Amino acid sequence: MKPHLYIAIPSMQEADFLPATLKAIAKQQTDYPFSVFICVNQPDCWWQQEDKLPVCLDNQKTLSLLQDYSEFPVNILDYSSMGKGWKGKKSGVGWARKTLFDHILQIANPEDILVSLDADTLFNENYFQSLGDNFALKDSLPVISVPYYHKLTEDERANKAILRYELYLRNWLLNLYRIHSPFAFTAIGSALAIKVWALQKIGGITPMKSGEDFYLLQKLRKMTPINNWNCESVFPAARFSSRVFFGTGPAMIKGDEGNWESYPLYHHSHFDEVEKVYNMLVSLWKEDIDTPFTLFLQQQFNDKNLWQPLRINFKEFFRFERAFHEKADGLRLLQFLKQEEKNRPFSEEKALFDNLTIFCPDKIPPFLNPDFPLNNLSTSQLDELRNILWEEEMKQRSLDIR
User: Fold this and answer.
1) Which residues lie closer than 8 Å to 270 by C-beta, 6 or more apart?
2) CB under 8 Å to 79, separation ≥6 — which residues?
3) Is there a contact between 156 and 378 (Cβ–Cβ < 8 Å)?
4) Above 70 in pLDDT, residue 295?
5) Strands of the 5-11 sheet, one edge to the other
6) Which of 119, 154, 175, 306 is most open to solvent, judged by the fewest CB atoms within 10 Å of its CB?
C-alpha cells in the first residue's frame, strides 16, 4: 500500500496567494493518496490592534474561501478567528507548523509522508508523485530537502532582491558541498518532505517565530543523512514580507534598503578554515589542534578541554567524528562564518568572483568584475548569475541519488 501524503500549509494574510497554491494542488497527477491541512493563524490580541486588523480580516477571507472550497477536501485548523488565535508567547509560522505537524502525527502512520509547504508556493503537476517515488527509491533516507527556484515577477525591486538573496543561499550551499559538510542543506520551510517516523523519532518540530525549518533540518541531520535531490522543484513566491523575523521576506526588505549584512556572500577561504579541521579530525581524535575553527568552538562552549571527553567516550574514530559534528553543527558553522566575515571581510563582488573560479571557472560571465558593484548589475545579469549557481547546485544535489 502506498504511503499517504499529508500536506501541511501555514497561512497568515494569504488570501491573495493561497488560491494559486490550491490550484497547483488540484492539478496534481499522482497515484499517492493525499490530504491537505491548512492552519490559518495569528495572535488573538491582534483583533484589538488597529494596525493588525487587516491581517485578521484577511485571515477571515481565507477561512471563507476554504470553507467554500470544493476541488478537494481541506482540513482547516482555525487559529485566527476571534478567541481562537495564539495566546501568550505562542505566535509565528513556527507555531503554525508545529500545530500542523503535531495534528498530522496523531493520525498518520509511520511510513506516511509529511509535505511541508507555504501558502504562496507553486509546483508542477507531478510534484507529489515525485516525492512519493523519491522516498520509494531511497527508502533509507527519510528526509528530502527539495530544490527551489524563485520565479521572477513584474516588480523589478522584488526581482533584484530575491536574486541577490538566492546568490547568498546558493553560494552557501555550494561551499558546504565543496568542503563535504554534513550540514549541506538549504532550510526552506516550503521545500521539505519527511517520513512521519523520522519526525516522531526527533520529537517533532521545535516551535519558533521563524527559522524553525533550519532547526528542524539540523535535528534531522544529526539523526540521518538528508536527501537534497528531487526531480521536481518548488517555486516559492518572491515577495516583500515582514510576517516572520528572518527568512526570505525580511531578507528582501533589508536587501531592498541596501542592507545585506545578515546575508553576505561568504568568501570560500572562510569555508576553507572549516575544511582544514574536517581533514584533521583523525589528529584531533588523538590530541588538541589549534585552528581558528577549533578555538571558536571552545569559546562557544566555554570549554578549553572540549575534545578530551569525546576521546574518552568514543574509542572508535567514526563515533568521535559523529560526536564532533554534533557540536560543530550547522548553527556553529554559521556563527563561525559570521565571525570570519567580520574578522576578514571581502567585498561581495570579490567573494562571488573568487568563488565562481572555484565552482565553475569556465562559466564566469564577462560582466562580473571584482571591482564592479553588484548593485549596478541589471536584473537579467543577476538572473544569469543565479542560474549559473543553480546549475552547479543541481549537479551537486543530483549526487544524492547515487
Assistant:
1) 337, 340, 341, 344
2) 39, 40, 41, 42, 85, 86, 96, 99
3) no
4) yes
5) 74-79, 34-41, 5-11, 113-116, 192-195, 143-145
6) 154
258-295: buried (b, 16+ CB within 10 Å) or exposed (e) per residue?
A: eebeebbbbbbebbebbbebbeeeeebbeeeeeebbbe
pLDDT above 60 (res 67):
yes
Among residues 256, 284, 225, which one has the least CA distance to residue 402?
Answer: 225
CA angle 240, 231, 200 (to 5 degrees): 75
Across the strands, what pairs with 115? 7, 193
Give CA–CA dist 307/324, Å, rounded.
8
Instruction: Quote the Cα angle for 170-376-335, to 5°.
Output: 35
Distance of alpha carbon 173 from alpha carbon 396, whole angstroms: 9
Among 138-152, 186-200, 244-258, the range scoring the smallest mean pLDDT is 244-258
Does residue 245 surpass a pLDDT of 60? no
Written in H, E and C, the secondary structure of the chain is CCCCEEEEEEECCCCCCHHHHHHHHHCCCCCCCEEEEEEEECEHHHHHCHHHHHHHHHHHHHHHHHHCCCCCCEEEEEECCCCCCECCCCCHHHHHHHHHHHHHHHHCCCCCEEEECCCCCEECCCHHHHHHHHHHHCCCCCEEECCECCCCCCCHHHHHHHHHHHHHHHHHHHHHHHCCCCCCCCCCCCCEEEEHHHHHHCCCCCCCCCCHHHHHHHHHHHHCCCECCCCCCEECCCCCCCCCCCCHHHHHHHHHCCCCCCCCCCCHHHHHHHHHHHHCHHHHHHCCCCCHHHHHHHHHHCCCCCCHHHHHHCCCHHHHHHHHHHHCCHHHHHHHHHHHHHHCCCCHHHHHHHHHHHHCHHHCCCCCCCCCCHHHCCHHHHHHHHHHHHHHHHHHHHHHHC
Whole-angstrom CA distances from 145 to 24, 29, 79 are 20, 21, 28
What's the confidence (pLDDT) of residue 240?
Answer: 59
Which class for 348: exposed (0-12), middle (13-18), buried (19 or more C-beta within 10 A)?
buried
C-beta separation of 248 from 162 below 8 A:
yes
Spatial separation of the C-alpha atoms in residues 59 and 53, rounded to whole Å: 10
Q: CA-to-CA distance for 95 and 212, rounded, in angstroms?
A: 9
Q: Which amino acid is at 19?
A: P
